[in-house]
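Hi Prof. W.,

I finally got the Ferredoxin-NADP reductase prediction working! I wasn't sure whether to trim anything, so I left the full sequence exactly as given:
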Amino acid sequence: MARAAVPGRLTWRVAGLAEATDLTKSARGLVFDVPGWPGHLPGQHVDVRLTAEDGYSVQRSYSISSVPDGERIELSVQRIADGEVSPYLCDVLPVGAEVELRGPVGGYFVWRATSQSPVTLVAGGSGIAPLMAMVRTRAAEGSRVPFRLIYSVRTPEDVFYAGELRRRAREDAGLDVRVVYTRQAPEGSPEPPGRLGVATLNTHGWPAEFTPDVFVCGPTGFVETVSDVLVALGHDPRRVRTERFG
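And this is what came out:
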């Protein structure tokens, strides 16, 4: 069902907003129809360009959250209060409006369904976006590769795709989801809020001796800390792939 991403010269394409969904109070899922889209790999991203009537333009990069299929892609956008692009995408852009997209971009931070290695995914906040594409693609391709997702957020209200993740983990024995709350845990939670640490990564990620593929995405400080812990736990640095922002 999926088309492989076509390498070559990146081209700006006009994309129409087909659907929009609130993921949290400060994030929006945007589904675009992109005529001529060449296909993508889970983990890749696109550049989004907005141009004002006076010709001023600005662009930002956003990870693709959707399964590679046809000419439709989904982006998960976190609103940045003083940003130039994300407030418009989250609060203003109406269904039917058009933006420019360029991509897919990136070939390192990608998961291929042909891989047979177990996978550990570690996300911080909106860093779940490209990892969501991996989770969805695994299911769409019928892969039996076991996935473990460790997702760090501030509060329960900050979880992207909360209902979908619960459903997938409940229905798929090959997907384990662990959410870590750093500021406020859900009512009745057996564990108090706290930062993602060595114990959680060691317990809920695949052990280094299993030689898993590891993908870490989130704010720069988060990614650097998690990567250092994983290497200290014995993981091969060449198998720990990172994507950071901020």
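Confidence is low (pLDDT under 50) at residues 1-8. Does that look reasonable to you?

Thanks,
D.
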